[in-house]
Amino acid sequence: MKKLFLVILISLKITGADNIIAQDYFIHSLSEARKRAKEENKFIFVDFSAVWCGPCKMMEKYIFPDSEVKDTLTSKFICVELLQGKNKATFSRYRIKSFPTFIIMDEEGNEIYRFSGASDKKAFLDRLNAMPNTETDLEKYDSLYIFNKKNIQFLNEYYIVLLKNKYKKKAKKIAKRILKLDKDWSKKSNMEIILRNLDVNKNYKYLLKHKQQFYDSFPPKIINEILFIRYFNTKSSKDYIDEYINIKQKKKDFNKLFNNDTSQYYLNRYFFYVLKDKEDLKLKQIYITSALKYLQKDSLIFRNKRFYNQIMQLIYKIKDTTQLIELEKAFEFQFSGNDEDVYIKYFDLWAFVNYKLDNKDKAVSNIKRANEISVKKTGKPFKSNLQLLISLDKNQK
Predict the structure, then answer these.
(1) Distance in angstroms (rounded) separating the CA atoms of residues 174 and 159
(2) pTM surpassing 0.90?
(3) What does the alpha-carbon distance between residue 287 and residue 268 come to, in Å, rounded to a whole number?
(4) Is 263 part of a structural domain of the chain?
(5) Domain count, the chain
(6) Cα–Cα distance between 44 and 37 in angstroms, integer?
(7) Cα–Cα 20 to 30 A to 316, which of 39, 69, 155, 299?
(8) What is the pLDDT of residues 164-195, one digit of tens each?
(9) CB neighbours (10 Å) of residue 103?
(10) Is residue 28 a contact partner of residue 79, using CB atoms and an 8 Å limit?
């Protein structure tokens, strides 16, 4: 190991990398990376690391900040660093056994290529460039398809290549063919195809009928998320709740979809997403109560800016001090951990809750913290809208 570190240091001197730049292009959320990969049509590069790992620190200090390495990575990939301990489910899913481990994924999080261990700059770039050329593979599989329409092994390989090259419509066609030819849907490869193609009603029904089989083969949280998204996107769920009978029906639906320990969580989440501001005060209370419970369970909400207006409206709707205190607990929960990952405007909303609870010192503290993060990340001070939120609140009263 000492020899490896020496090689790295010598390489840095030879390449003139002593004038390295700050490592500022890694994010720390795989879900955010997948979103950006879709938007920017890039692959994902994930550095699975650990705070105690010496080789990881060498890569972080000397290799990743190098301008050539940075240009190579950012031109092709959305780069992510994930630390052991904070991302247990992800580390388990990708079977991370040593550090550092580097995995290249597609926009759906499917592994394409991996390599492990620290190295000097040249070796790292060589290993990075050894990523399989899936476009060449695609041409080969396209030409062979006509001769292998009933070859299940070939079709599975072709399906994976199509996904890697983001030919989703053609992949869906091949998926349908695989499931038609291969009657054993309990095989893990077929189960993965089913999960990717739940818009096909036959596949969705199979998942519902054999739920335990999927729970045993995949992380249960992934299956639950897929079930929730599929239900949320169905036409029947789009009818926003207007009557109490519909609330009862939703409870029945979620009890069928999920286990007892998770059905209430997803029901609260559903109410948080879809319930609108009703004139009926009881309906409004159901919405508020469900939203507060959900916000105290899912720590990723404030990492997503799309819920900003929804949270703001929730704050305006709450008039009861007890519920405001529960909302304060939700904010404490949401900001626990690394608050730099939180969408920065949520600091304003937290300060607004502090203000409504007459805790002005805490409000000032939150605005100061937002300013520190903004200056650190962008070099610019945070523009607070706290006074605007307060004035709008007074007008609503």
Answers:
(1) 6
(2) no
(3) 8
(4) no
(5) 3
(6) 7
(7) 299
(8) 787 888 999 999 999 999 999 999 899 999 99
(9) 20
(10) no
